[in-house]
Amino acid sequence: MKTKVFIIAGPSGVGESTITNAIIKKFPNFARLVTATTRPPRLNEKNGISYYFFSKDKFKEKINTGDIVEHTYFPNRDVYYGTYKPDLEDKLRKGLNIIVNLDIIGAKYFKNNYKAVTIFIKPESLEDLQKRLVARDPKISTEELHKRLQNAESEIKNEEKFYDYSVINKDGKLDEAVKKVVAIIKKNL
């Protein structure tokens, strides 16, 4: 069986990482691609497991050497995120199916270069997403919450149509969303 790349993406807080982790738990021949970033590690995050953490200079150097094959810069946070080619190649060499959680720029890159199957995860409503974001981070500022909800609304309106599939992750119904994503994956293996 040929290995495949699957993109599971969606607005911040919608549950794409949780869905990815559930799939990897069920299927040992799947692995999450570890993203590279210039943001500092958060509590309990480990280099090479949570993310590949680089300084901005090192990240730019890796872009120039081809070790970062696609990337996005977020000026409002002064942070880069990108695909670290050594991790990608290592997982492909091992014959693993890869799940990548990233934005539309990365999804387009993987669709064009790896024939990735793209799945957009969305909330049932922006109100549900707001509740999740606040529950996940009770100290989130009003400004940050507003920014994330605006970004989510824009992603749903402007980017969802690019993806091959859309799955609604209803609040409290994670198992249903996981089952739908697993069915999509099985159909495309």
Short description, anyone?
This protein is α/β, with parallel strands linked by helices. Helices cover 44% and strands 21% of the residues.
Keywords for this entry:
4-stranded mixed β-sheet; globular; 9 strands; alpha/beta
Task: Record the SSE blueprint.
Blueprint: E1 5-9, H1 16-26, E2 30-32, E3 35-37, E4 52-53, H2 56-65, E5 68-74, E6 79-84, H3 85-93, E7 97-100, H4 104-114, E8 117-122, H5 126-136, H6 142-158, E9 165-168, H7 174-188
Parallel strand pairs: 1-7, 1-8, 2-7, 3-4, 8-9
Antiparallel strand pairs: 3-6, 5-6
Helix pairs in contact: 1-7, 5-6
Helix content: 40-55%
Q: Ends: how far apart?
A: 8 Å
The CATH superfamily is: P-loop containing nucleotide triphosphate hydrolases
Question: What CATH architecture would you give?
Answer: 3-Layer(aba) Sandwich
| Class per helix and strand makeup | alpha/beta
Oligomer: single chain
**Count of domain modules:** 1
Radius of gyration: 16 Å
The biggest beta sheet is recorded as: 5 strands, parallel
Order of helices and strands: EHEEEHEEHEHEHHEH
For the record, what CATH class applies? Alpha Beta
State the helix count. Answer: 7
What is the molecular shape? globular
Mean pLDDT: 93
As laid out across the biggest beta sheet, the strand order is 2-7-1-8-9
As a percent range, the share of strand residues is 15-25%
Low-confidence stretches: none
- By DSSP, the count of extended strands is 9
CATH topological fold name:
Rossmann fold
